[in-house]
Every structure is written in C-alpha cells, then in structure tokens.
Amino acid sequence: MNLEFPVEKGDFTKAGEVSSQIKRTLKKLNVPSGVIKKVVVALFEAEVNVIAHSFGGTITCSIEPKYIKIIVIDTGPGIQDLGLAMTEGYSTASQEIQEIGYGAGMGLPNIKKNSDDLDIYTKAGDHTEITMGFKIENEE
Amino acid sequence: MKNNICYHHNLAVRENICKGCTHCMKKCPTNAIRIQKGHAVVDEEKCIECGQCLIACPHHAIKVVQSPFEMLFNYQVRVAIIPTMFLSQFEDEITNEMIYMALMKIGFTHIYLSELGIDIQNLLGIKDINTSGKNPIIANCCPSVSQLIRIKYPLLSPHMSIIKPPNQITAIFARAEMVEQYKDPNSIGLFYITPCPAKISQINTAEKDGLKLFDGVLNLNTVYNLVNNCLTKNKKKFSTIIDNVQMEFPIITKNSARWALLQRRGELKGKRSLAIDEIHQVIEFLEEIEENDEININFLELKACAEGCVGGILATRNKFLAAERLNFFTSNLPEELDKKLINRILKYKQLLSDNIFIAPDEIKNSLSLDSDIEVAIHKLEKINEIVKVLPGIDCGLCGAPTCFCLAEDISQKKASIRQCAVLRLRDSKGLNTLAKIWGEKVSNT
C-alpha cells in the first residue's frame, strides 16, 4: 500500500506529523515494534530536514509485507557536500533553527543508523531524494 | 469471586437500563465500545477498564462486578486491605478512628493500609526497575495505564516497572502474618477495597502465577455505604468510647500514605519525575514519548483518573476535597517506619523479596487489524477506500464512535456500511451496491 504526504518548508510546529501518521499505520498493520521504532526515528529526521533545509517536499511510503520503502523528495536546493552532511555533528542549520532545538547535525547519520537500505541522490542547486528501506523481520 | 483470569470482565452493561445513547462510546479512549441492537457492547480485548464509560453514562447502566460482601463471613479472620484514600472519603467530623471502628463493626477483624507496600519495598531496598534498563521507568501503579501501554503502546512496554503494586505487596505481608498467627490458611480471608475496576483485573492477572493475593475485592463505594450507615447508627456510641480505641493497624510513613495523591514520587528519591493524570492527557503524553523516549525523566507516574487514585472511579467524594483531606491527615504521619513494624516486616524479608516482581506479561497489539501483515495491509487499503465514501461527521448513529471505526469494523466484517444513517438518507439504493462491494456484517463475531 502507498501513502503520500506533503511537507511544507519552515513549519516546525508540524515536525513529526508524518512520522506519527506512519507510526499509527504501522501499528495497525502489526509491524514489529522494533521496526516501527527505526522507521519513526529515521523518518522524523528526514521530515525535519525537509522542513529546515528545503523548499518543501513530499514523503511517500510504500508498505509491503516484508519491506517498507520511504522516499523523501524535496524541491531543492540540494546538499553541498553529502560526505560532510553524513558526519555526526556537522550541520548547516541556521542559528535560528538551532535555537529551537534542531540542527544538531544528527539527521542523516541517524537516518543511516536506523535504516536497512539507504540511497541518497543530491546535487547543489538540484533537489534531494532520499530512499530508505526497512526490512520487516519478526522479533523473537 | 469468578475464577476467570482473563482481563476486562469487571465492567458490565446492564442491558435493561442501557438506552444505547452513545455517550460512553464517544468517551472511550480506546474505542472499545459499539452500540449493537440498542445497547453498548464492550470489546474486552480493547477495554482498559479506565471507567470513563461509567462516568459518562447518564443512566447509570454500567456497573462494576464485585465479590458479594457476605462472602466475608466464610472466613474467621477477615482482613481489610484499604487504600488511604478510603479514609479521605469522609467529612472531617468523621475521624479516622471512627472509620476504623465502623470497619471492624461491619465485619472485618484486621486492617492494613494498602500503601504499606511502598514502605515494605523501600525497607527491603528494592528499587523500581524495568526490563529495558533505560529511563524513564513508568510506575506500575495504575492498572489502566499498564493495560493501555500493553495494548496500544507496545514500544513503551519495556519501560514499565516490574515491581508489584503496593496493595499486592501488602497482601503478601498481611497473609504471612495471619497464617503465622492463626495457622489454618483456609480460615483467613483477605479483602481489598478498590477505588477502581481496573485493580480487580490487575489482581486476577497477578494471581496467574499461582500466588494467592486476595480472597475477594470489594468496591469502595459499597464499603463506603456500609461504613456510613454504621456510623450514622453508632455515632454517639463511637464518640464516647473513642478515647480508648487504639488504631491497631500498622502506621505507615507520610510519603507512602500520600501515594494516592498525584505527586512526583521520583522527586522524593532525588530524581527527575513527572506525574500525569487523566486518561486523555496520559494518552497525549504517551503518543509523544512513544516516538522519542529519550527524555530527561527518570520516573513517570501516569494515572488514568483525574487527581490520581483519590479520584478513583468508585470514589464517592469530590476528588479535590478528598485529596485535601488525605494531604491534611497524613501531614502528622512519621517520616520513618516504627521499629516494631520494621521487625515485623523483616521477619518475612525472604518471602517478600522473592515475590516482589511481577511475572512478565505478554505484549499484545490489540489494535492491529490482523496478525498477518499482508492481510492487515489489504484491510487497511479497504478501510481507506471506505472512509472516502463515509460522511466523516462521526455522528455515532451507526453504533461506532467514528467513521474510521465503522470502516475498520466493516473491514473486519463486524459491521456493514448499511449501518451508516447519513448514507442511507442520502442514497439508500447506492448503499446496496456499496454493501455488495465491501461485504456484510458476519454475525456472531
């Protein structure tokens, strides 16, 4: 099944709405709680990234019995240096954003840590597209 | 008492009184209620026994099942385990001594305060712990909250404290003392006077691992009435002999006695803690920390009733007045336990330490659509399609609390789209077509 959610730029009051929504869906689907947790953490970071750094974007989530694929696409402006952005603690967030408690430089590293598969397309001046995958395996 | 150890059988709908008015259904925090054939029906898998339905019902059609009071007299030794909040149900002119005398008069032979269990836990030096080993530790005090977490927030289950609640610890201690004194275990009956229906289930569940805790659970309002009647009849007599009465139950510490109040218990131990009351506020908070449990809080006290147990569903007095009295009369209680009492407790140190932890409980996601993910996905897709057609005004006339719930019930074959009153008025012919697509209710579910 596919779910799609628009994400507006700059509206931090809505940060976490998409991840909450997807969390509720996954709970209804009896996805193991460990998997839900990983999805929620990774997706929350991605959601904040779109709000904090982009011109806005869309999150699509496709759920299959054994795999969850989430694609986060924004409309730009792209990441200058992906290698640096993947480093823990590195942030380009403005002081304003850091003052409200975001931009600790843990976004992409946390996404990497919590997803089973991760593919990032980005280019300065272009858009960013993050595809993250999660295997649904039963916890025993 | 029923020998049934399954959950949620203590709230019952009196069908002859229930008008099927939807008040309870709208208030239920877990959407466990449906109106079927003109009566409220509770889904026992989803019910957490918070008692919101009982408060909401304008016709008093929901009752709490309890042990018959007469069964007290099947025992020679009749022990009442009472929560301190029971004492706060009375007006100031009724002293604790008078309540004590009345409890003895109506049939009890011994009294223990339920919150002694906290002092026992502290005395044994057993700290609150959970299975995750991570903060925050969620207190295991409110059984409705425990059930809520079990069925709705499985991610947070590892945060739950695994220490038995105080009333159960007290029961183990009281029974040990009584057996020592009276030898014949069959002559001893322990009765818990409960401020809420959820504690009855909690006790039944705890007894699953074979340890007998209580021989019966009595509703607080029932015992309140008996005590109140007794006091009305004997007021003069009691007040003349009161000076010679010694309250012969163990005096507990101030902090423990205030356990029923909403307080930040963790702070007493020098930790950061939060206390949150009222089930909807608790749910709002749990939603929040379910996604991010890395909060700087060591100890969480979540209570389903507003003002905590002092505002229990079965309490009779205004919760704020009751809380004030409890706070007032406990202010003179000692900070430390009496030496004699310490020795009495330490005598059973081994027994108490061995039984202080609760048996691990299975986590079940009662709110999932199906245990098979593939089937669940199909059902959810179907629900999303049905929701698009439904009016979205959540009127409740179909017997489900929201349009989404009706869609969910249809996908589970527990309801038919024909139940939607709005669609029926709008286009009853079209409804036939929709019912063919999405299926009818399969009876006997």
Structural write-up:
The complex is a heterodimer of chains A (140) and B (445). Helices cover 36% and strands 26% of the residues of chain A. Chain A has a single domain (2-135), classed as Histidine kinase-like ATPase, C-terminal domain (Heat Shock Protein 90). In chain A, helix 1 (17-28) runs antiparallel to helix 2 and helix 2 (33-53) packs antiparallel against helix 5. The mean pLDDT of chain A is 89. In chain A, strand 2 and strand 3 form a beta hairpin. The longest helix of chain A has 21 residues, at 33-53. Chain A has 140 residues and is α+β, with helices and mostly antiparallel strands. Chain A has helices at residues 17-28, 33-53, 82-85, 95-99, 107-114, and strands at 2-7, 57-64, 67-74, 117-122, 128-135. Chain A is built from five helices and five strands, in the order βααββαααββ. Chain A has a five-stranded antiparallel β-sheet with strand order 1-2-3-5-4, covered by helices on one side. Chain B is of the alpha/beta class and 445 residues long. Chain B folds into three domains: 1-65, Alpha-Beta Plaits (2-Layer Sandwich), CATH 3.30.70.20; 69-126 and 163-261 and 307-354, Rossmann fold; 368-445, no CATH class. Helix content of chain B is 40%, strand content 11%. Chain B has 19 helices and eleven strands. Chain B has helices at 23-27, 52-56, 84-87, 96-105, 116-123, 143-152, 166-182, 198-206, 220-241, 254-257, 265-268, 279-291, 319-329, 339-346, 349-354, 373-389, 403-411, 421-426, 428-438, and strands at residues 11-13, 33-36, 39-42, 62-64, 77-82, 110-113, 137-138, 188-194, 216-219, 273-277, 299-303. In chain B, the strands form four sheets. A four-stranded parallel β-sheet of chain B has the order 6-5-8-9. In chain B, helix 4 packs across helix 9 (220-241) and helix 5 crosses helix 7 (166-182). In chain B, 45% of the residues are buried.
